[in-house]
Design goal:
Length: 127
Amino acid sequence: MKYLALVYYDEKVMDRLSQQEWDSLNQECMECVAGLTESGHYITGSPLLPTDTATTVRVRDNRITTTDGPFAETKEQLAGFYMLEAKDLNEAIALAGRIPPARYGSVEVRPARELKETGNQAGGNAG
């Protein structure tokens, strides 16, 4: 089953890291991806640029509107994601625990669902 591991941290805390600390963390992330790839658990993923580069898009009454920045102010910001393959939630949680930025913030693990032509349950609660 596919699980999305969303990496969150406080950008202000990360901005205080030295260049050496930041480089070391990024090298750890690359090593983590290599290990997850080797074990067959890594599907894809990417770090994200800071929230000040984000644009939120809404469509209301067939009209597109945009807002600079993320949708909501939060203590921790979305920093990146890993799409993982795991046999169950317990394995996905164990894999997410290996993601280095979890030491600085959190990793939300959420099962992904397949979008079907028909028969999708309202709200995405299909099992």
